[in-house]
Amino acid sequence: MEIVKAEGYVTVPGIGDVEVRLDLHDRPVAEPAFPWSWSGVISDGPVMPVGTEGEVHLDDENTTVGHPFVVITSAHHVSRIRGREHA
Fold first, then answer.
1. I need a surface site. Which of 52, 53, 71, 76 has the fewest CB within 10 A?
2. How many domains does the chain have?
3. Cα separation, 53 vs 66, whole angstroms
4. Residues of 42-74 as b/e, b for ≥16 C-beta within 10 angstroms?
5. Could you tell me the CA-to-CA distances from 86 to 30, 50, 70 in Å, in that order?
6. What is d(CA 31, CA 47) in angstroms, rounded to the nearest whole number?
């Protein structure tokens, strides 16, 4: 499992756009041709309760399309997120 340090921002309803740094596990890809599982850890980010859904936008991608995620654990401004399918 490759772990990539990345910068970008998350878009979350009720919170808006917040810049974050995150560690990505199996980096998300745009429009995968097969089921693709990825997750990430956002440290020192916004407080996001478990179950919160949003999109992460990575600074090194030239796209306005984000990668949908759901928060799976959250404590002390550290959130673990898991990628989900585009709706």
1. 76
2. 1
3. 12
4. beebbebeeebebbbbbeeeeeeebbbbebeeb
5. 10, 19, 12
6. 29
Question: Helices (H), strands (E): how many in the chain?
Answer: 0, 6
- The model's pTM is 0.86
Tokens at residue 38, please? 């990825």
- Length of the chain in terms of residues written: 87
Q: Which spans in 1-87 are helix H?
A: none
Q: Give the residue numbers spanning the domain of 29.
A: 3-83
Q: Could you give the CA distance from residue 21 to residue 36 in angstroms, rounded to a whole number?
A: 22
Query: Checking DSSP bridges between strand 78-83 and strand 53-58, what pairing results, if any?
Result: unpaired
Measured from the Cβ of residue 79, the count of other Cβ atoms closer than 10 Å reads 26
- How many CA atoms lie within 13 Å of 18's alpha carbon, on the beta-carbon side? 17
